[in-house]
Amino acid sequence: MSELTAKITAAKEYISKFWEEEPVAGIILGSGLGNLIQEIARSIEIKYSDIPHFPESTVEGHSGKLILGYMQGKPVVAMAGRFHFYEGFSMKEVTFPVRVMKALGIHTLFISNAAGGMNPAFKVGDLMIIRDHINLQPEHPLRGKNEDTLGPRFPDMSEPYSKALITAANKIAADNNIYLHSGVYVGVQGPTFETRAEYKYMHIIGGDAVGMSTVPEVIVAAHAGLKVFAMSVITDIGIREEENVITHEEVLAAAKEAEPKLTLIFNELIRQL
Q1: What is the CATH number of domain 3-271?
Q2: pTM score > 0.90 for this model?
Q3: In this protein, which residues make up the domain named Nucleoside phosphorylase (predicted)?
């Protein structure tokens, strides 16, 4: 057993002591989006600091606990708070929880994030389904010797985000009069927000929104054979020429306002699993 596999097993066995159910889905909640955990019934909370080999989130808006319970009657495991490369973690540490959730039994991963908009059609508070991504982060989570038991050396990335789940989400949104965008997410290192020139560059190369997370987790999920659905809350618009000073507090506020719509869509998608 490799060191990584041993760490995954230790974390899984610790969590399983508190909850023997096999979850069908994992959920990763982004900045300001942690209230979705209130939708989880009969929940058990485990602090990240108590789980063997788990990192600890250091960012405001990320509470740092694993939630196990039921959404729409389906067993799920949710991360209230994620990890970022800019916090000083390696990409293997950032994505370690995805490996653990896979070991617990999930087959589908739901991801949310707060993102800066680069598409002129976007406004603050809009929701964007991520249909594809561009990886501009400086370290790859699969760098190093491949663990064949976890996935292939060269995983296919032609459909990192499930088309079937995207279709289902669009129908849910239409049925509930929720307007959704669909676009390409650009993953960057952070922790600085982007310059005007960087926003312009990333829009030119095909990006609609930009953020400091999600891409590493999706890569590892694809490596593990998981289906992925991801959604961005557009919390600021960086493509405009006028004065646009962005603060983390504004990001959290915009995310909180859009959260009920995101929660409805996640709830309904999980109900349909």
Answers
A1: 3.40.50.1580
A2: yes
A3: 26-271
